[in-house]
Amino acid sequence: QANLYYLKGAKPPEEILSRLAGKKRRLKIEDWCIGCGTCVLKCPQGALTLQVVNASPRAVVDPSLCVFCGYCGAHCSEFCLKIY
Question: Residue 59: beta bridge partners?
Answer without folding.
Answer: 50
